[in-house]
Amino acid sequence: MSATVIDGFSVAASVRARVAESVAALKAKGTHACLAVVLVGEDPASVSYVTGKAKALAEVGMLDRSLHLPASTTESELLAIVDGLNADPSVHGILVQLPLPKHIDENRVIMKIDPAKDVDGFHPVSVGNMVIGRPGFLPCTPHGVMVLLEEAGIETRGRHAVVVGRSNIVGKPVAILLANRKYNATVTVCHTGTKDLASFTRQADILVAAAGKPRMITADMIKPGAAVIDVGVNRVEDPTAKKGYRLVGDVDFVPACEVASFITPVPRGVGPMTIAMLMENTLLSARRAAGEE
Ligand code: GUN
Fold first, then answer.
1. CATH code, domain carrying 64
2. 1 band by pLDDT with thresholds 50, 70 and 90
3. Mean pLDDT, rounded, of the chain
4. Distance 97 CA to ligand 1 centre (A)
5. Which of 53, 97, 175, 206 could form a disulfide with 161 if both were Cys (CB 3.0 to 4.6 A apart)?
6. Res 23 pLDDT > 80
């Protein structure tokens, strides 16, 4: 068998195109959707993500109120900046790029963001709304995973989904969304404390790999015909690559293609969906601010 490779790059491009149309329509009615991305310090992966976000904002026609602060920024300075953005009615979405420098308490910063502008979906109010199925903001990567499953026509209802990884950003929310009535999957969450991981992954009709370990899911851990969603983004050394590294997922992609029915690649799989869903959340926030939702 050779799996169908799900093209997240093109699904994300069509999401952005749809968002761009709505941004223009909303702007014509007097509301220009605006996102503020706050980056503290120079973490290379964060700088690269933030550059991607700026590019997407330009593409969908949103205002970009991003701030790049020095690594020496104190927690109280950052909290005051978030407060200023909360109070500014022209800003519809606020995203503080993680990880933050060690001297800043990430939870305190996330909790400072007005839940009405929490387009990242990380605030406890957003998490709570997601868990109980109330309107709010869904976290971008998990939401992107759901959209990819839908776009690829992968049935989730009544199927067994196994999620490898329990992070607050991906593993836990993906498991919660899959178990919601809308998707109606039976969900197992595996993590570093799981004994005999392969005995669980081999039962998965839908396998979501979100552990952050390069190529840890090998072909023998996949049930024949499963849909495999790889959320891992790992830098591995590669002297032949221009930057000296390349990106691989948590799944050993080439052999996995011989076992799975559907698979997402890394790069160009789940990754581009994260930014596309961020654009969608910012549009949603702007529409709410304009009284349209
Ligand atoms: N760092 C890596 N991914 C993310 C994300 O989705 N949001 C934020 N705020 N920081 C990140």
1. 3.40.50.10860
2. low
3. 97
4. 5
5. 206
6. yes
Q: How far apart are CA 84 and CA 91, in angstroms?
A: 10
Model confidence over 154-174: pLDDT tens digits? Answer: 999 999 999 999 999 999 999
Closest residue CA from atom 9 of ligand 1: 97
The Cα 198–Cα 190 span in angstroms is: 10
Average pLDDT over residues 106-114: 98
Asked if 47 and 106 sit in the same domain, the reply is: yes
Residues for the chain: how many in total?
Answer: 293
Does 148 lie in the same domain as 216? Answer: yes
Q: Are residues 242 and 181 in the same domain?
A: yes
Q: Are residues 99 and 165 in the same domain?
A: no
Say if residue 110 is in the same domain as residue 145: no
Helix (H) or strand (E) holding 263: strand 262-263
The whole domain housing 106 covers 30-114
200 alpha carbon – ligand 1 mean position (Å) = 28
Q: Which residues of 231-264 are buried (b: 16+ CB within 10 A; e: fewer)?
A: bbbbeeeeeeeeeeeebbbbbbbeebbebbbbbb
**Residues forming the active site:** 53, 97, 120
Atom of ligand 1 nearest to the CA of 46: 1
Q: Is the CB of 98 under 6 A from ligand 1?
A: yes
pLDDT for 33-63, tens place per residue?
999 999 999 999 999 999 999 999 999 999 9
How many angstroms separate the alpha carbon of residue 9 from the centre of ligand 1? 18
- Residue 203 in tokens: 């039962």
